[in-house]
Structure formats: structure tokens, C-alpha cells
């Protein structure tokens, strides 16, 4: 039986970062991946594919140029599913090649197969050819990720009723689509297909969406979606979904009926823990297949077994999963692990993008912190005008007492890139004066920080001598 310092199950963001970190510390590491190629959900069905699909859709549709040339403008008149897939395959090949090189360079061993616990320190790996291998490790990191939630009442057929993994393999672009689930995944795909001029209807039982995002940003986002004729049926539930003559008919709980070419069910994901034989390790998952961990060390209730990434729940971001995996690996092999900075950015790659870092206005109110806001619209910047942007909003929240930045929230082109300026100032405890007194490249969208900073400063007044 092979003996390792760290055994990592899954090669997504948390698994690969954890494995490489442990290897860099001189430890013997084995990664087990059940997929055909390394990379996990992030590379093959999640983060990278969806963002590649988004970029391809925006480029081929001419979406970014429509502010100048009108809504009918298209770079490619007839866009096919094959057009979208071509770029996707190139991107995935590159990601896998980079990851395999990282494993080889750091001497991380990896094998293909399905892993399950034999006992708390031993795992059995069943390879594709049926060979069974047992491996033992001082520590184990579970980074198995998630898979789409597929309820029994949904008539999935991989053609007209699909989950978010299956959507990447469609043969034809639908003229109409219903997306069930107004979470991050549902919203991203709904807006991407809307940019391709598919008539999209978004359905969710909740009357609100993205409740963890600043309400003013969400309101601006919803306005943009409705402005381009996306139907938002919030507070409504699809009670019946039937396939009929190549179409799909949905009956909602209020009696409304909708006929569409395709249904994407994106209402949640499940932790991929059902095949791990967790009881043999003294572990159990919750109803959604997720594992409970110490939020500082990512250790489970079994001290030498760790879990990181989407399988531990919110925020379920590739970026945070990487850090969780790195911290878990350091703790697992006995190295010092510093706690990450308090505030991290949250990115939603919808059309338009949303990104946020720090406290929302609602959270500031709940904490009874006296505050002021500064707002800039992208059309106020010269770069925004050059790009033809008539939408886009950057909002910052400052403490009136300390003048420190409390939160930055952006909706619009490049939001996931722009947010890092605010993130740096936030974690370095910067004040409104940073934005007022510093010079930003001109013309840039980043200049919106200066505009929003001045907007807040004008209301807050100049710095007082006692501060």
C-alpha cells in the first residue's frame, strides 16, 4: 500500500492549489481525479467553460458595440452552437495542459479513478479498467466539488430539458429558453443566452434575487435585464414541466403556462460526496451533500481530514476555493497558515458583470454605522463614452466617523476587474481621501473611482482636524 503525506480527492481549484502547496513544502502528494482529465468542475463544466461561453457570445454577437451601432448590430449574423464550442475546446485544452505541467513541475502524483474511504486514513481507488488500489495518507483533503441538483420531477433529456453541465453540449442555439433558478449560475447563463438574442424567461420561487449583493446594484441590474426584454418571473414556481412535440411546456403555481424550446434547470447544486463512503471515515454530509469544516483551518470533525472548495458551501467561488485549499494543505502538513484578508471580491459573470467587496449598504445599516455613499456611472467617464456604454454603476460606501471605505459594489462592463482597486483600499484600511487625492489613468473606467470618491467627499465635507 502506497503511503502519502497528503491525499487530495479532486483536482479543481481547491484540490490543485492544496496539492501544489503541500508539494512545495516538500511533502509526498497524490491527487485522485475521477474525470477523464484533471481540472475538476471548474475547468470542464463550471467556471472556465461558462466564462469562455460568455466571452465568445459577447464577441460574436457584437454586444459591446451595440451602444454605437444599434441593437441589430452583429459581428457574425448566424451564430451556431459549434461556434461557441470551438473556442471552448481550445481554452479547456490550454487549462488542462497548464495544470498537468504544474503537477509535473512540482512532482505531484495523480491518478484517475473513483475514491472512497476504507477507514479514516485509507482510501480505495477504482480505476477505469477495474483495477483497485488502496492508498494511505497522514492527511486527506476532500475537494470533490459539486454537481447539479436534479430533482425527480424534472424530465431531463439532455436536449430540451438540461442542467448546467449538459448545457455546454447543446447542438443548436434555442430561439427561446426558460431558466429555472435565479441564483448565480442561472443568472449567468440566462443573460449570456439573452445576449445571443434568445428570448429568455427567468423563473424563481423567491421574490428577490442575489440577496447577498447590495440592493441598489441588484435594482440597476434588474432594470438592465428588463430593458432588453428578458422576462423575470420572480415569486413564481414551475409546478409542472412536460416535453411535447419537441417543445417544453411549463405550468406555474399561479396557473400561467409557458411554451419554450429549452429549459435550463439551475436551482442549486449538490456536494459530490455520495460515493466517498463518508461513514467509514467517521464523517457525514448534510442534505445537500456538503461537509462542515472549521472556517479557519478547513478541518472536519475528524482532525486529519480536511475539506475545501464548493463542497463546504458559500461562497463557492473558484478564487476562494483556491485559498481554502492552500490554507487546508498548510494546516494538514503542519505548516503555519495565515488567515486570509477579511474582505474578498465576489464576481458574477452575467451580462452585465457584477462584482462586490466589503459591506453592502444594508449590512452597514444593520450595524448602525453612520455612512455616506459615492456613486459614479460609467457614462460619466470619457472611456465609458468612447466604449459606447450607457449603463454601468460603481458605488462606494464610507464611514462618516473614520472616513474609511466599507464596501465597493459595481455592475457593468469590467466589474470583476475594476473591483480589485476597491478591494486593495478596503483591506489596507484606506479612506475617501485615497480616491480624491490620487491620479487615475485617463481615459479609463477606473476613473469612476475618482468620480464616486468625489461624490462621497462632497457630501462628507473636508477632513476634520481631530481626525
Q: What does this entry look like structurally?
A:
The structure is a single chain. This protein has 467 residues and is of the alpha/beta class. The protein has 3 domains: 2-148 and 270-332, 3-Layer(bba) Sandwich (FAD/NAD(P)-binding domain), CATH 3.50.50; 161-267, 3-Layer(bba) Sandwich (FAD/NAD(P)-binding domain), CATH 3.50.50.60; 346-460, 2-Layer Sandwich (Enolase-like, domain 1), CATH 3.30.390. 31% of the residues lie in helices and 25% in strands. It has helices at residues 13-24, 40-44, 47-61, 66-69, 81-105, 184-195, 215-227, 318-332, 361-366, 382-387, 415-427, 432-437, 447-460; strands at residues 2-9, 29-33, 109-112, 114-119, 122-126, 132-142, 146-148, 161-163, 176-180, 199-204, 231-234, 238-244, 247-252, 257-260, 262-265, 269-271, 305-307, 346-348, 354-358, 371-377, 393-399, 405-411. Strands 1, 2, 3, 4, 5, 6 and 17 form a 7-stranded mixed β-sheet that branches. Strands 8-15-9-10-11 form a 5-stranded parallel β-sheet, with helices on one face. Helix 1 (13-24) links the parallel strand 1 (2-9) and strand 2. Helix 1 packs parallel to helix 8 (318-332) and helix 3 (47-61) packs parallel to helix 6 (184-195). The N and C termini lie far apart (65 Å).
Amino acid at each position: 500500500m502506497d503511503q502519502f503525506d497528503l491525499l487530495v480527492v479532486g483536482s479543481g481549484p481547491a484540490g490543485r492549489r492544496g496539492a501544489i502547496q503541500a508539494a512545495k513544502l516538500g511533502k509526498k502528494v497524490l491527487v485522485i481525479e475521477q474525470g477523464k482529465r484533471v481540472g475538476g468542475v471548474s475547468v470542464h463544466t463550471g467556471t472556465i467553460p461558462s466564462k469562455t461561453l460568455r466571452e465568445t457570445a459577447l464577441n460574436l454577437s457584437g454586444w459591446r458595440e451595440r451602444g454605437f451601432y444599434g441593437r441589430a448590430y452583429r459581428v457574425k449574423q448566424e451564430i451556431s452552437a459549434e461556434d461557441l464550442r470551438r473556442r471552448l475546446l481550445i481554452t479547456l485544452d490550454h487549462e488542462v495542459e497548464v495544470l498537468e505541467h504544474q503537477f509535473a513541475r512540482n512532482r505531484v502524483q495523480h491518478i484517475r479513478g473513483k475514491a472512497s474511504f476504507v477507514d479514516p486514513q485509507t482510501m480505495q481507488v477504482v480505476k477505469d479498467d477495474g483495477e483497485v488500489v488502496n492508498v494511505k495518507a497522514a492527511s486527506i483533503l476532500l475537494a470533490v466539488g459539486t454537481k447539479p441538483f436534479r430533482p425527480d420531477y424534472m424530465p431531463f433529456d439532455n436536449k430540451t430539458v438540461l442542467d448546467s453541465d449538459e448545457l455546454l453540449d447543446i447542438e443548436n442555439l434555442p430561439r427561446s429558453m426558460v431558466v429555472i433558478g435565479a441564483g448565480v449560475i442561472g443568472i449567468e447563463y440566462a443573460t449570456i443566452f439573452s445576449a445571443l438574442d434568445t428570448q429568455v424567461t427567468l423563473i424563481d420561487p423567491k421574490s428577490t434575487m442575489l440577496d447577498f449583493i447590495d440592493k441598489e446594484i441588484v435594482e440597476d441590474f434588474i432594470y438592465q435585464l428588463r430593458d432588453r426584454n428578458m422576462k423575470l418571473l420572480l415569486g413564481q414556481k414551475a409546478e409542472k414541466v412536460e416535453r411535447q412535440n419537441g417543445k417544453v411546456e411549463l405550468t406555474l403555481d399561479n396557473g400561467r403556462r409557458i411554451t419554450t424550446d429549452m429549459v435550463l434547470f439551475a436551482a442549486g447544486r449538490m456536494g459530490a460526496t455520495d460515493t466517498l463512503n463518508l461513514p467509514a471515515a467517521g464523517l457525514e454530509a448534510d442534505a445537500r451533500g456538503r461537509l462542515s469544516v472549521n472556517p479557519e483551518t478547513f478541518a472536519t470533525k475528524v482532525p486529519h481530514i480536511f475539506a475545501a472548495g464548493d463542497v463546504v458551501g458559500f461562497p463557492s467561488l473558484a478564487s476562494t476555493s483556491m485559498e481554502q485549499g492552500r490554507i487546508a494543505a498548510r494546516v494538514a502538513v503542519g505548516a503555519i497558515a495565515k488567515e486570509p484578508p477579511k474582505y474578498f471580491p465576489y464576481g458574477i459573470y452575467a451580462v452585465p458583470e457584477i462584482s462586490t467587496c466589503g459591506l453592502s449598504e444594508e449590512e452597514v445599516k444593520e450595524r448602525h454605522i453612520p455612512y455616506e455613499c459615492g456613486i459614479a456611472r460609467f457614462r460619466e467617464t470619457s472611456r465609458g463614452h468612447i466604449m459606447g456604454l450607457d449603463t454601468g454603476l460603481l458605488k462606494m460606501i464610507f464611514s462618516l466617523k473614520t472616513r474609511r471605505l466599507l464596501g465597493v459594489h459595481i455592475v457593468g462592463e469590467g466589474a470583476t476587474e475594476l473591483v480589485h482597486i476597491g478591494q486593495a483600499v478596503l483591506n489596507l484600511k484606506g479612506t475617501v481621501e485615497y480616491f480624491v487625492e490620487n491620479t487615475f489613468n485617463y481615459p479609463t473606467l477606473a476613473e469612476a473611482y475618482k468620480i464616486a470618491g468625489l461624490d462621497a467627499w462632497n457630501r462628507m465635507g473636508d477632513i476634520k482636524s481631530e481626525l
